[in-house]
Amino acid sequence: MFNIHIGGTNLYYLTYYFIIFSFLGWMMETVRVSLKSGYYVNRGFATGPYCPIYGFGMCFVILLLSDFKNNIPALFVFGMIITTALEYLTAVGLEKIFKAKWWDYSYKKFNFQGRISLDISIAWGVLSVLMIEFVVPLIDVLIDKIPVLIGEAWGVLILAIIGTDTLITARNIVSLTKVVEKLALARSEIRAEWDKFAETFSENIREYIDINELREKLVLTEDIKTKFKERRRLIKELNIEELKSRFADRDFTKEKLDAINKIRDMYAKYEAAQKLRVSKAHKRILDAFPGLELNNKDLQEIVKGIKERRKNKRKK
Questions:
Q1: CB 161 within 8 A of CB 48
Q2: Which of 40, 107, 120, 121 could form a disulfide with 84 if both were Cys (CB 3.0 to 4.6 A apart)?
Q3: In this structure, are residues 33 and 43 in contact, taking their beta carbons and an 8 Å threshold?
Q4: Per-residue pLDDT averaged across 132-143, rounded?
Q5: What is d(CA 183, CA 177) in angstroms, rounded to the nearest whole number?
Q6: Each residue of 150-177: b (16+ CB within 10 Å) or e?
Q7: Within a 10 A sphere around the Cβ of 6, how many other Cβ atoms?
Q8: Other CB atoms closer than 10 Å to residue 306's CB: what's the count?
Q9: In whole numbers, what is the pLDDT of the chain averaged over residues?
Q10: Are 30 and 289 in contact, with CB atoms under 8 Å apart?
Q11: Please, how many CA atoms are within 13 Å of residue 195, restricted to the half-sphere of its CB?
Q12: Is the distance from CB of 142 to CB of 24 less than 8 angstroms?
């Protein structure tokens, strides 16, 4: 089934190179980012323990540079060029497809468009040498010990799992973008109502609504189906009599009370949406790519807010 040769390398072996190096890349990235973050981060595009970019990168290196084995300078230079080009093309492709920047090396001294960086490229070159000179021979020994039929079956199964996982993750990224777009729209509508309130009553709505206080009073029930309704009710009923007593010197017309209640209700809806619509899969993606930056400024502010809340939650 896998008895096909690509560039002089058997497809059966290439399949396992891809799988093994995807796993090794994931392990390296997860350890690095987890240590840097201070908590466990499941690093990588997909959910499972693999980073396909490492698998593809090393497969390209093996296909194109195996003839340079024992020529370490050439292996280093060409390995650095090939993997850096792949990283750059991957960055551009992901940005075009998902309208987001997944990593950003702009803070590094020697970078190009924030997509690639000299120190990372050097690391790619070193990895290429280590993989070709030391790791690939060990993997070959391991692959040779697997019965071919069992190896082919496992290869097909693992590739199917990685492919399915990648598609599911892509769908989750699209849904995350849609959620963020809805949150941004809701926030812009709230801002519009704030401006309308100020224009109508010549007063600042923040004099009547303490956002932090409202958040503290929003006690959630356990049943997720009732959370949205409960949050809206709590804000709406927080509470007209309390509001009147706090600002006894002010004139509360029915029009003003209705305007205040409308904004409270809209804010409750916005807060509930953040809690209910940002799924675990979305949070994993945000954790896995701390440098993720959406192209739209308003959308990026929403993402930044979600990240900050998660960061504060971990500290508690």
A1: yes
A2: 121
A3: yes
A4: 90
A5: 10
A6: ebbeebeebeeebeebbeebeebbeebb
A7: 11
A8: 19
A9: 81
A10: no
A11: 6
A12: no
pLDDT per position as a tens digit, 167-185: 998 888 888 888 888 888 8
C-alpha 33/C-alpha 22 separation (Å) is 16
Q: Are 231 and 218 in contact (CB under 8 A)?
A: yes
Environment class of residue 199 by beta-carbon count within 10 Å: exposed (0-12), middle (13-18) or buried (19+)? exposed
Residue 221 is predicted with a pLDDT of: 45
Angle, alpha carbons 269-272-276 (nearest 5°)? 135
Residue 107, both tokens: 């803070």
Query: Which string of DSSP letters, residue by residue, matches the chain?
Result: ----EETTEEHHHHHHHHHHHHHHHHHHHHHHHHHHHTS----SSSSSS--HHHHHHHHHHHHHHGGGTT-HHHHHHHHHHHHHHHHHHHHHHHHHHHSEE----TTSSSEETTTEEHHHHHHHHHHHHHIIIIIHHHHHHHHHTS-HHHHHHHHHHHHHHHHHHHHHHHHHHHHHHHHHHHHHHHHHHHHHHHHHHHHHHSS-GGGT--HHHHHHH-PPPS-HHHHHHHHHHHHHTS-HHHHHHHTTTS---HHHHHHHHHHHHHHHHHHHHHHHHS-HHHHHHHHH-TT-EESSHHHHHHHHHHHHHHHHHHH-
Closest CA to 299 of 122, 101, 121: 101
pLDDT tens-digit map of 4-19: 767 777 888 999 999 9
Amino acid present at 208: Y
